[in-house]
Amino acid sequence: MSYNIGIIVSENYSNTRKIKEEIFKLKEGFKNYLTIYMINDNSFLNIIVKKFIIDLGIDFKEILKYDENYSQYCVNPSYFYNKKFRKEYFHIRNKEFIKLCKGIYFFIDKKDENKGISDILLKEVIKKNKDKIILN
């Protein structure tokens, strides 16, 4: 059985050392029973975090909107992706992310509080009463 953890990094968060420390603690705690989920926004920091997770040998999955390009780490099969843009894909992706994760780590910069994807997801996580850890 795998323990599914989500990681959300806000747009202006820059403490990569803190993210790496937390991921390493998760790996030590759950050994081979850990899967980390991320929403890919192609930001530089998300790319670094994704690479770090994969390099540590942790099972990694990403959740994309259906109008984005498929990757080998996608949760769904390839035919779900590369669709025409539709607004609801944003909400579908967020709901799927929250549903799949047992707990979610939020790395939020003070400048990003109350705005952006991290804030939207945090409100949904609170509403669904999921485990959360907020680090800034």
Q: Characteristics of this structure?
A:
single chain, 136 residues, alpha/beta, Rossmann fold, five-stranded parallel β-sheet, 21% strand, globular
If you had to describe this structure to a student in words, what would you say it looks like?
- With 136 residues, the protein is an alpha/beta fold.
- Helices cover 39% and strands 21% of the residues.
- The protein has 4 helices and 5 strands, in the order βαβαβαβαβ.
- The protein has a 5-stranded parallel β-sheet with strand order 3-2-1-4-5, with helices on both faces.
- The model has no long low-confidence stretch (mean pLDDT 88).
Which secondary structure elements does this structure contain, and how are they paired or packed?
Blueprint: E1 3-9, H1 16-30, E2 34-39, H2 44-55, E3 59-63, H3 88-100, E4 103-107, H4 116-128, E5 131-135
Helix pairs in contact: 1-2
Structural class, please?
alpha/beta
Spatial gap, N to C terminus: 30 Å
Overall geometric form: globular
| Element string (H = helix, E = strand) | EHEHEHEHE
Got a strand count? 5
Mean pLDDT: 88
CATH class: Alpha Beta
Q: Please state the second-level CATH architecture.
A: 3-Layer(aba) Sandwich
Biggest sheet record:
5 strands, parallel
Uncertain regions: pLDDT < 50 for 5+ in a row?
none
In short, what is this structure?
With 136 residues, the protein is of the alpha/beta class.
